[in-house]
Amino acid sequence: MNGISENAMPTLKTFEALPAGLLEADATALEALLGGPSLIHLPGRRPEPLFLTVLLHGNETTGFEAVKAVLRRWQGRELPRALSLFIGNVAAARAGLRRLPGQPDYNRVWPGTETPGLPEAMLMAGVVEHMKRRRPFASIDIHNNTGINPHYACLVRLEPSFLHLARLFSRIAVKFERPLGVQATALAGLCPAVTVECGKIGIQSGVAHTAEFIEAALHLDHYPQHAVAARDLEVLQTVAIVKVPPEASFSFDGSAADFRFRGDLDHLNFREMQPGAAFGHLAAASAARLLVVPGGPMPLQGDYFAYADGEIRLTRPVVPAMLTTDPLAVRNDCLCYLMERIGI
Ligand SMILES: [Zn+2]
What we know:
The chain is of the alpha/beta class. Helices cover 22% and strands 25% of the residues. The structure holds zinc ion (ZN). The site of zinc ion has 3 residues, from loops.
């Protein structure tokens, strides 16, 4: 079916109450129900809202499912805190895709983006302006990933309030600076903000854990003054983002390609990798190299991979995250992030 929305300019819809049918809707039905990206404000006992963002990537449904579960529990009762919910790429959600062909990535177009002139970037800037006036208490942007990863929170600041919010979700947090134009970076100017990565799509335990986290954040009265203990939260810093060059081919099943990656590559996520650890093989005739770009505050120094004897091996100790064996995720986003442990 050809989508009528594919070339339509998105305009922000705002609601001051729960739209009828929202709690019964699937993510695929939201475009028809809401008419576009939507910002929904719900009142609560404490007026500074918890700001939740879901479906910036249209196929990542765990956040929306978790929000519905929480709101169903509170139906007919006053929420402990006001809640503002932004539902992002409903057009891609209808198709079950991260984004539609021709659309930008909805988590790369927030203030600070490299593409501020895009209509989607103006829409997100409008969302931030709306939220600024409401003085949010916390911001949580909810995502899934495709490889085998633990649940973890990502943040841009190591201030105690940010760390406490991250710790409510997981014992693992990742500090990042790039990519640019991410929701959590834009909202960090207004309130403690995290992105949460809730594992693979469609896993019920992921929805349940995310709903518990939202519930805990709704009940949080204030941020503790004391620092988060280092034993309670492991913090990693993203240092590099690894991409496959667009002109290179790759496989995970050993079939002929420039890069023949290990089929179990995503099992390496969040493991301490040592120099020499193998990612796979490079075709004998291929001059292709993985693109390694800065993911942190520092420019990269030296190489992360060596290609001697057709073997792709790490040249330094790192902890990978979001390694995936999903070809579409590799093409649309990246092969992985590389991180190092840091103290808090
Ligand atoms: Zn995502």
